[in-house]
Design a protein that fits this description.
transmembrane, Multidrug efflux transporter AcrB transmembrane fold, MMPL_dom, 5-stranded antiparallel β-sheet, 27 helices, Alpha-Beta Plaits, 4-stranded antiparallel β-sheet, transmembrane helix, alpha+beta, 11 strands, elongated
Length: 732
């Protein structure tokens, strides 16, 4: 692979205008396709095959409005007044009439029909039922509802609009993400000491992200792609794109400082550092693609979309970056006498120059046992809150406090009880067509279950053998007791079948979300086993050692556990919630642990390869175990530190978003990268290798013969004389 990448880098350098043109044409074509054919993003979370989804699909045929999105218009009378006053009842009636004329609205049910009036008669709810799912609800339809509610306020009422029809259906880029990129650029400038080199690392990442996102948006008509999938692809594509360019460009500039011809230098950097980039990118892609084995469609799309963004980032790094280097020529050479030039010409620090990172590794290696105990103890302590991890999908209770859907949610919670924000639908079916009678009997049985606040009378569907019963729990949609109620209803199904002749199935948005969270929770451990097993296999082949992959796997698990512990402490327990501006605390987003595991696995292997490969090379050359750790780290600790800082700032830039899905994911990835890079790879890894000594590089002879010899950094390429192909530098 190193030879192929060497040739690719040289070819891209020589044909730089063609390579850049191809990338620009691809980008223009994808943007055009996205604009012409791109559809709406779909933020529904479903799991085919679950009881709740099967029942919802059935309702979609026999009672479409029950399976569609719903909106709530919440009316509150001024203090000291009741909604029974004539002016208020008239205003509510006008709002109902206006809502029925909104596009896509199937039915409107006022408080006089549903009985949705609070006990103190100060608050009432008008239910609006759409004939389509939330992803298909047009903004113009919601605008009609909101304008009707605003008109009601002229009577003195306070109104807010919420319900399942509201939610994030777009990707929002704000100042915080731009600041994150700006900080990443600052890290690049400090690392390279050059604005040109910093820009050269950023351009392939930006163009790669643009291509990846345009490609995803162009696929929306064919696949259900969520806004979370787009944002995750954006975060990962940008972060790894900058990092991968950083790795290759660092090697290129080091070689330029030693007098290597620019064309040969970028070819050699592409064959060496580029080989490591391809390997690291492949591990990230494999881990994200492995999300598809869980069998949850939205998670599969999320994983494959992010994997596609990483693939584009790898391709940009090994093709577009060499082409851009061709335009820059010798201008990327570090200035003579600069720190960058000194590090390149004196890589071993023989002239007395030792970087802060190298001194840190020497300090760690000097007291390895104390370091291992201290770091492991701290990470285990950080991981302890993860033992209380609860998973759920966010609802409007997680929306920004100033949003209309959050105001409606809070008002309903206060005046009617938390269960009104997450009702359960129970579908009853009989074999003999006596649906109404059986439904009434089933409703009576459901009223006797613990955790039920109220059960509304059964509603008929277009099939006479069916009814739909709305069950209002005593607790909110993300409460563990609501999840228990769903299990209790299902456990009562045999008894209801025996006494009423009706089969029942629990469905509705709340039940679907509970089933999705349960499936994700059950899938977490098998997925961790898959990625840990993969890491053991890959790293055993790369480093031809047993200790190195075991140490890497344990360190990865500690990083994931510590990150989840911090997520639980902040987002579930509410530590520093006010300081960090968290709008809601409660269960963790149900797919966060799996996303964190997949992404962090790839990034951990990335840093492991770049850091430990230099140590192994020193060991092969010197046979001195402890010295190989310190000298090997000297060559890579600076670039690994810069890469981790860039990754951290990019992820952290998405934290201020008012998005209940993205905020915890961004936080988890940011702290996960920081913990894995600085606590595990740059601290725990050198300490463990120093403790293990010679045994760190031991591999049974029979296994050594069976394993392929992977050269992920192209070291053999560096030892092979390359033909110099010099070319006149571009005009300046």
């Amino acid at each position: 692979m190193a030879v192929l990448l060497h040739r690719l880098g040289r070819s891209a350098y020589r044909h730089r205008k063609l390579v850049l043109g191809i990338w620009l044409v691809i980008l223009a074509a994808l943007i055009t396709c996205a604009g012409v054919f791109g559809g709406k993003l779909d933020d529904r979370f479903t799991v085919p095959g679950t009881e709740s989804q099967r029942a919802l699909d059935t309702l979609g045929k026999t009672l479409p409005e029950a399976s569609g999105a719903g909106a709530q218009i919440v009316f509150t009378a001024p203090e000291g007044h009741h909604l029974t006053e004539a002016r208020y009842t008239a205003a509510i009636a006008k709002t109902e009439a206006a809502a029925t004329k909104a596009p896509q609205v199937k039915a409107v049910m006022g408080p006089s029909q549903s009985g949705a009036v609070s006990a103190d008669r100060s608050t009432a709810i008008v239910q609006v039922q759409y004939s389509v799912q939330r992803a298909e609800v047009r903004p113009s339809s919601l605008d009609v509802i909101e304008r009707a509610a605003e008109k009601a306020e002229k009577s003195g009422l306070t109104t807010s609009v919420g319900g399942s029809a509201y939610g994030s259906n777009g990707v929002h880029i704000g100042p915080s993400e731009i600041i994150g990129v700006a900080v990443a650029v600052l890290v690049l400038v400090v690392t390279f000491g050059s604005l040109l080199a910093a820009g050269m690392s950023l351009l392939p990442a930006l163009l790669g992200v643009a291509v990846g996102l345009a490609g995803l948006l162009a696929l929306t008509p064919a696949f259900s792609i969520s806004s979370t999938a787009i944002t995750l692809a954006l975060m990962l594509g940008l972060a790894v794109g900058i990092d991968y360019s950083l790795f290759i460009l660092t090697r290129h500039r080091q070689q330029l400082a030693r007098g290597t011809d620019p064309q040969e230098s970028i070819a050699l950097a592409n064959g060496t550092a580029g080989s490591a980039v391809v390997f690291a990118g492949s591990t990230v892609i494999i881990a994200l693609a492995a999300l598809s084995v869980i069998g949850i469609p939205f998670l599969t799309v999320m994983g494959l979309g992010a994997a596609g963004a990483v693939l584009v980032a790898v391709l940009a790094a090994i093709t577009l970056l060499p082409a851009l280097a061709g335009f820059a020529g010798t201008r990327l050479t570090p200035q003579p006498g600069s720190k960058e030039a000194q590090r390149a010409t004196d890589p071993d620090g023989s002239a007395g120059r030792t970087t802060l990172g190298a001194r840190w590794v020497m300090t760690v290696v000097a007291k390895p046992l104390l370091t291992v105990l201290a770091v492991a103890g701290i990470l285990v302590a950080l991981a302890l809150p993860a033992t209380d991890l609860r998973l759920a999908l966010p609802d409007n209770g997680s929306a920004p406090v100033t949003s209309t859907e959050r105001k409606a949610y809070d008002t309903v919670n206060d005046k009617f009880g938390p269960g009104f924000n997450g009702p359960l639908l129970v579908l009853t079916e009989t074999d003999k067509g006596a649906g109404a009678h059986a439904g009434a009997q089933a409703a009576q049985k459901l009223r006797n279950l613990n955790g039920v606040m109220t059960v509304l009378p059964p509603a008929p569907t277009h099939d006479p053998s069916q009814t739909v019963i709305q069950v209002i729990p005593k607790t909110g949609p993300d409460s563990t007791r609501t999840g228990q109620l769903v299990r209790d209803i299902r456990a009562a199904a045999p008894d209801i079948r025996e006494t009423t002749g009706a089969t029942i199935a629990v469905t509705g948005t709340t039940a679907v979300n509970i089933d999705v969270s349960n499936r994700l929770s059950d899938s977490l451990l098998p997925f961790i086993v898959i990625v840990v097993g993969l890491s053991l296999i890959l790293l055993t082949m790369v480093f031809r050692s047993l200790v190195v992959p075991l140490k890497a796997a344990v360190g990865f698990l500690l990083s994931v556990a510590a990150s989840l512990g911090l997520v639980v402490a902040l987002f579930q327990w509410g530590w520093l919630a006010d300081t960090l501006g968290l709008a809601h605390t409660g269960p963790v987003v149900s797919f966060l642990p799996i996303i964190l595991t997949g992404v962090l696995f790839g990034l951990a292997m990335d840093y492991e390869v770049f850091l430990v490969s230099g140590m192994r090379e020193e060991w092969v050359h010197t046979g001195m175990a402890r010295r190989s750790v310190t000298d090997g780290a000297r060559h890579s600790v600076r670039v690994v530190t810069a890469a981790a800082l860039i990754m951290f700032t990019v992820f952290a830039g998405f934290f201020p978003l008012d998005d209940a899905l993205i905020k915890p994911i961004a936080f988890a990835l940011a702290v996960g990268v920081a913990i894995d890079a600085f606590a595990v790879r740059l601290t725990l890894v050198p300490a463990v290798l120093a403790l293990a000594g010679r045994h760190a590089w031991w591999l049974p002879a029979w296994l050594a013969r069976a394993l392929p010899d992977l050269d992920v950094e192209g070291t053999r390429l560096q030892k092979t004389p390359q033909t110099q192909h010099k070319e006149p530098e571009p005009a300046r």
